[in-house]
């Protein structure tokens, strides 16, 4: 019996014995996100005006780019995130990422498609690639949260998903306590394209959080060095600068 079948059985057992709960407050809710959390999330949703590159919300309609993007060279073309990385979004993603709440991935993906399907179709990616974990971290955690998102998005949008062509060859330290320049140094040469890669023109990278963009930049750089022309990204949430 392969691993995917075993995982499906486990998830069905979980649903049978533990009712579905809202991923943001953990109250029982068959609809996914409860009404109260829907209202809270609405205040965290990224709205126009957005930075034309990273998609971060900016204050002035007269500006096209946020401060970070005006002072940083990005290897990706453009990206979008759904919510600001604040409570309860950050707490929910933490559970998804570190406490085996894999089922949250489908709900996040549904929200991403509902909000950004038009933009994704305009980007017209040939393939969706999740930002990979280093093999040691993947083995310890048991799964890659970005891959869960990518597979759900691929199924919903009928876009191929490639989880084998991009590898994290360097086990980087935690990014959250580092400054911008330290983050870039930490991620230098962190990603590599594997022999499994078949050249395509456009790639949609998927990850859980956008902080400074250094992780996505490092992944995009590796892909472009192997012939990819344009790289876009989607994340669940985004931070508010360095």
UniProtKB/TrEMBL annotation:
Domain Phosphoribosyltransferase, first and last residues per copy: 123-234
Membrane-traversing stretches: none
Family stated for the protein in its record: Belongs to the ComF/GntX family.
PANTHER family in the cross-refs: DNA UTILIZATION PROTEIN YHGH
Name assigned to this protein: ComF family protein
Pfam family, one: Pribosyltran
Domain Double zinc ribbon: 15-70
CDD domains (UniProt xref): PRTases_typeI
Matches recorded under InterPro entries: ComF/GntX_DNA_util-trans, DZR_2, PRTase-like, PRTase_dom
